[in-house]
Amino acid sequence: MDTLFLLKPGELMLKGANRPFFMRVLRKNLSQALREVPHRLEDRHSRILVRVAEADAPRTADILRRFIGISGFSPALVSGKSLDDIEHTASLLVGSLLREWGTARYKIEARRADKSYPLDSYGIACELGERLGRRFPDLTVSMREPDFILHVEIRGEVFLYALAEEGERGLPVGVSGRGILLLSGGIDSPVAGYLMAKRGLRLDAVYYHSYPYTGREVRDKVQTLAGLLARRIGGLNLHIVPFTEIQVKIRERAPEDRTTLFSRASMMRIADMLAFRRNANSLITGESLSQVASQTPESLRFTGSFASLPVLRPLVGMDKERIIGIARAIGTYETSILPYDDCCVVFASRHPVIRPKFQEMKESFMGLGIEEDLRKALRAAERITIDG
Ligand code: ATP
Ligand code: MG
């Protein structure tokens, strides 16, 4: 027998005229996420139905649990339209729950999208309730505190389901276009990328690698993080940009207390150039207000001025504990805390400027004469495609 999953699309219900586009992206992402599970997708009015073989149900549920763009899903049974059919199918469902739980309180919520159906929602609930009550003495009705709700949806077919699981919510990845994530080996940037993917951005990630000052382990770590993120958001491209020459020139030519900000500014500029190449509409960082010297409002103004596209900083108002909570939930935390220094530790200012003066810093950066090096670094970038 097949197992059906009834999916509740998330926010896209709110989106009016864009709805067909959102649904198209959602379906495409679903097919991609389920590519290794033989399945069929069916549209049912405001729902999507995924039909898989019963043996594939557990791994399908695993995939749906972390799939971005649905607010929830339920394993469902399909029944014929007669009340006898509905009673029979409901008994299968209720019977299996009672075998597990012994007794249960429940209520029925019926919905009749097919208005030609002879009984109205209330009528269906009463009649079915009475029949189930006769069949299952261990089942009691509780309107206020049910252990489960038996949903009966009468459409072209009749769907019955009892247990709904929460989904990841968010907008389908891709409906907001593409963003460039500045991905370091730290805790914050993978979280930032994940949050923006949930707002519909498909991601390209860029990592600035300062070999041999930062070792091969850091690069591997970033690649692992990119892989973990890719699994959540349905794939991404990782660009690894050789950054050593730039760091060295900054160290040679800039006052020591400016090197951190100048290297951040360079990263921003390169990411902005990459965005145009990749047809992206925004940059994403893991910056959080005043977490470190390079993230004060004045510093953000300075580094942000090297991007022409909007710089999205979803963590800007979050404290570290909250960020760590999300990192744990998406499974990146354990990798992020592996103790390898990133380039910025090696080249960081010991006492960085905290409130950079904008004009003075801009001129000072121009004086470095590294514009061509920035372009050259981007040209030398290595691109790795990681499937979701
Ligand atoms: P994270 O935990 O994400 O590394 P952080 O708190 O360590 O952040 P910084 O090191 O100041 O903060 O970096 C701020 C942001 O700049 C990062 O979140 C990331 O978006 C970007 N960034 C820093 N270093 C790199 C790098 N080597 N490659 C790509 N992006 C970087
Ligand atoms: Mg960092």
Summarize this structure briefly.
The protein is α/β, with parallel strands linked by helices.
Number of domains: 2
Present as ligands are:
adenosine-5'-triphosphate, magnesium ion
Mean pLDDT: 93
Query: Which oligomerization state do the chains in this entry correspond to?
Result: single chain
* Strand segment tally: 15
CATH top level class name of the largest domain: Alpha Beta
The appropriate CATH architecture of the largest domain is 3-Layer(aba) Sandwich
Instruction: List the helices and strands in order.
Output: EHEEHEHEHEEEEEHEHEHHEHEHHHHHE
Structure description:
The chain has helices at 19-33, 57-65, 83-101, 121-135, 188-197, 216-233, 244-253, 259-277, 297-304, 320-329, 333-336, 343-347, 358-366, 371-379, and strands spanning 2-9, 39-44, 47-53, 70-79, 104-112, 139-141, 148-154, 158-161, 165-166, 178-182, 202-209, 236-242, 282-284, 311-312, 382-386. It is of the alpha/beta class and 388 residues long. The strands form two sheets. Strands 1, 2, 3, 4, 5, 6, 7, 8 and 9 form a nine-stranded mixed sheet that branches. A six-stranded mixed sheet has the order 14-13-10-11-12-15, sandwiched between helices. Helix 8 (259-277) packs across helix 14. The model has no long low-confidence stretch (mean pLDDT 93). The structure holds adenosine-5'-triphosphate and magnesium ion. The site of magnesium ion (MG) has 4 residues, from loops. Magnesium ion (MG) is lined by residues 184, 186, 342, 344.
